[in-house]
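Human: I would love a firmer grasp of how sequence relates to backbone shape in proteins. Could you go through the record with me and say what the backbone is doing? Here is the record:
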Amino acid sequence: METITSRKFEGVVTSIETQVSFVVDGDCDWIRFKLAFQAKGWYQIFIIDPEQKIRLQAIYIQEPKEWIVSNNNEETSFSTVPGEVKKGTWLLQILSAVPHLESAFVMEYQLGSGQVLQDSHKRTTTWTETNGENGLCLHLFNGDRIYNKDSKWYKGDFHTHTNESDGKLTPAEGMNQARKMGLDFFTITDHNILPTKWIEDELLTIPGMEITSSKGHFNAIGLTNWVDWRPAASDGGMETEEGMNRLIQECRSAGAIVSINHPMLKPWEWQFKETRLKDIGIIELWNDPTFKDNVKATEEILGLWSLLWNDGHQIYGIGGSDSHLLPTESYEENGPPSVIGDPATYVFADGLTAQSIIRGVEKGHVYLSRGPILNCLVTKDDQVYQLGDRLQVETDEADFDFQFTVEYSSITEPSFITWIENGEIIDQYELNENGECPRAFTWKTHEYNWVRIEVRSRNNVLLACTNPVYAGETNTTLETWEDLLIAGKDHLS
């Protein structure tokens, strides 16, 4: 390693957006950046090269941070874009979440040649290079890479954080914890950061981003094209109704799942009233159950979810640990640890690939669990249906029969299955450690109906829930998120 030059500049954040230019005027293989702020805050950091391509994206909260932009894929940091370090004027962009906060900062940068990292590091896979349109197109990510060929239920987590944003685990530590929890797949959803590389591992890793505004968050799962969420965008980006609707559309058009996160968890609840329900494909029903306020928030969104299905919106549900802490930590003194994979989201998929998991979620082939293992067999006329499926019905029949059988195991405490049909509890069944629970249904052919199940403990603690199966159709009357909140006002009071 040879350091060609070291430089430093200082500045003050005085507004929501601060920009400072600096010059790279020599031939080099890498730049090492060190940044420190005087005041604790939430600062989104971008470094943009002379070709106006984003080369670094990060979050700074409290402690000084360091990143490397290198032409060596192995050496470049997890949130940076590898490639040629071009001569010319570069730009440091700082976005502050606190409009009136003034904070001095110091940026140091070293230009160097040769190998910048001397220690051995775990092998990584790079997902992008600077030949993308904005430097943040994950064109090297292989969403069809096969990790398992079997058609079965796969266990994963759709909402996780690392120390690339405000989590405490490094990417390697997060992967280790995911393996300890027996996960098959793991989604990276750091705040407003699209991962540019990851650790090479037998565990399927799906890139994503949690679009994090002051009025609500959503996960873009499987996102491989960066979207401009910044408030400086012409439509106000993630901080306006117009901008948020655009971002949802762009993420879906890019092939990502859009999941509204912890929609009822104050103060991070979804506040965009003009969000079109037809644009929402997925809702995060269950967010970190060890965070005490999530108990109420989960029950509230389950109630609103029933209203959505009753209104004819086939919006499916997933879960997410929203993990931020170390596995030894809890949000409450002597409380349960908050860990990756709690709750787990199980997806029935035809093989384990990023695309097959995404397709499984889009079809609603999903259940959520904190322990119970389920296998739901829905049969009609010798045809087997999966969770999320619409039952096919002969129109010349007045009504039709089907059976919904739940095979279950890993029941560790006294529990029962609750059958929920069109939003109403219709039956309950006490569970043993393992077994099966069949129930027959008769529905009218020309009516719209749906049914799902929940597993709860005797003191009504949620342990698992499934997506519905349904038949028929109905005209929807609710169009926006505000319509849903108004319709559910009595349930939320």
The two ends are 63 Å apart (CA to CA). Residues 35 and 41 are 13 Å apart (CA to CA). Helices lie at 171-180, 241-253, 293-310, 354-362, 481-487, 489-492. The mean pLDDT is 94.
